Structures are given as structure tokens and as C-alpha cells.
Amino acid sequence: MVTTSAIAVRDLRKYYGSKAAVDGLTLQVPRGCFFGFLGPNGAGKTTTIRMLMGVNTPTSGEIEVLGLRMPEQGVAIKRQIGLVPEDTLLFDHLTAQEYMEFTGRIYGLPAAMTRERMRELLALFEMDGQGRKLIGEYSKGMRKRVAMAAALLHRPQLFLMDEPFEGVDAVGARLMKDILLDLVGKGATIFLTSHVLEVVERLCDRVAIISQGRLVVDDTMANLRGGTESLEEIFVRVVGGARSTENLEWL
To answer: Domain spans of the chain?
Structure first.
């Protein structure tokens, strides 16, 4: 499988015992795309991202990221991606500056370049006055800003973002969205999971929906908007989430 896509997976499966978390997923994400990867809780979104990162090993199937094979070329892939996980796995006893300096060393950036980019990114995320504060003292929204700033430090071509707006206030979310849209405009690819479908509908060029580890929708937002349903209505219909309260007479 050789493609020019940012992400290409074919017949991807991940089993835990006899349970399939991801069940035969085939998907292509074009380069320069803002891609929404949606599904209900437990659908397999985070498991898929962990396999794209090389953290989880697939039971079977093929993964290609930026033209490279995972896991065979996993180190080269990791050098070119930025990650904002659902749980911001930061070091609470470091300051934001120390964490970003540590991140720069991981990616082999010269110290002077790391410091210069760090100052610019902290200013961009409106954190230039808080860089010396311990991460453990930050709110969840501020932790997300640090995680995203660190993910940008090495100028990756692809961003994997698992619920990046969760716990972020409206001002911070607007700032992050503007930065992400600017990145896509410059040719980067964003692979985003989010339960906030209105945000996905506004930001994304293309959307895939999975349910019980299987792909049920894969289309452009332009095509999806061409129908009579909103993205939320499509999502509820295809994952079977509609429920009636008629049988709860007391409610």
C-alpha cells in the first residue's frame, strides 16, 4: 500500500481478547485536510489514534502515515507528527517553558531554536506571562494550550488531536481553532476527534464516523451539508443513538 495521503489505513483491526475495538477500518486522509474522526464513546477513535502513533500494535491490517509504514518506520513518522492527546500527559512538576525545552530536546532541535520558538508559541497562545508557572497549577484549558504549543514546536506536517477543545473556555477554543485553520491553510493536515459536532461541522473539510470499530460514514462536509440533515442528525442516525423517553412516565 503506497499512497500520497497523510494517513492511509487498510483493513485495520485491534482486538482485546475476543472484543474488536477497531474492526476492519479502511480510511484515507488527504494531505492538507482538516479531517474529523467521529464516533460515540467506545467506538474505537482513541485506539485508532494510538495505532497511528505506534503506541498500540494492530492485530492486523496496514498503516501508512505521511508515506511511511507503521511500525517499520515508526521513528521517522513520530518526528513528523504533533500530538494533542485527550488526557494531556504533561509533567506537572515542570513549568511550561521547561516542558517545551524538554520537547525540543526530544525532537533534536537546537537549544537556541527551541527557546525562540517557545517564546513565540507562548505569546501566540497568550501564555507569555505564565511560562514559569508549574503545569500542575494550570486549569485543564491551560494544559491543553501547553500541549498544543508543544505539539507545534517541531513544525509537524500532521497533527493528531483527541478532543483538543475539551475543558477549554470559549476564548481559548476560538484561539485554538484560528491557529489550526491557519496551519491547514499552510498545508498541514489535522486529524481531529471531538464530541462537539458543531465545531467539527464548522472546521472540517471531510468527516468519517465509526461505530463499534467500523466505518459507517466517510464523506466531504460539502456533500454532507448538501442534504437536509445536520451533522448531528446524521451522526445520531448512523450510530443508532436516538432514544425515546415515552416509556419514562415520571420524567
So the answer is: 90-155
